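PROTEIN DESIGN WORKSHEET
SECTION A - STRUCTURE
LENGTH: 54
TOKENS:
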């Protein structure tokens, strides 16, 4: 799973944190565990009114 989308990672997430808020943009940091048990994380920049399905 090298290039994962936001919706895929939300389903795998162990933790979702609002990392930064700047104007009308928000940076989410999503953390999860891979198959070997190692913690991975990735940041996503979201604009105002973008939706995430859980």
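SECTION B - SEQUENCE
RESIDUE ASSIGNMENT:
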């Amino acid at each position: 799973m090298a290039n994962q989308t936001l919706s895929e990672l939300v389903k795998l997430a162990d933790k979702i944190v609002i990392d930064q808020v700047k104007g009308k943009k928000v940076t989410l940091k999503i953390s999860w565990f891979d198959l070997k048990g190692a913690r991975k994380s990735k940041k996503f920049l979201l604009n105002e009114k973008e939706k995430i399905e859980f």
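SECTION C - NOTES
The chain has a mean pLDDT of 88.
Strands lie at 15-22, 25-33, 39-47.
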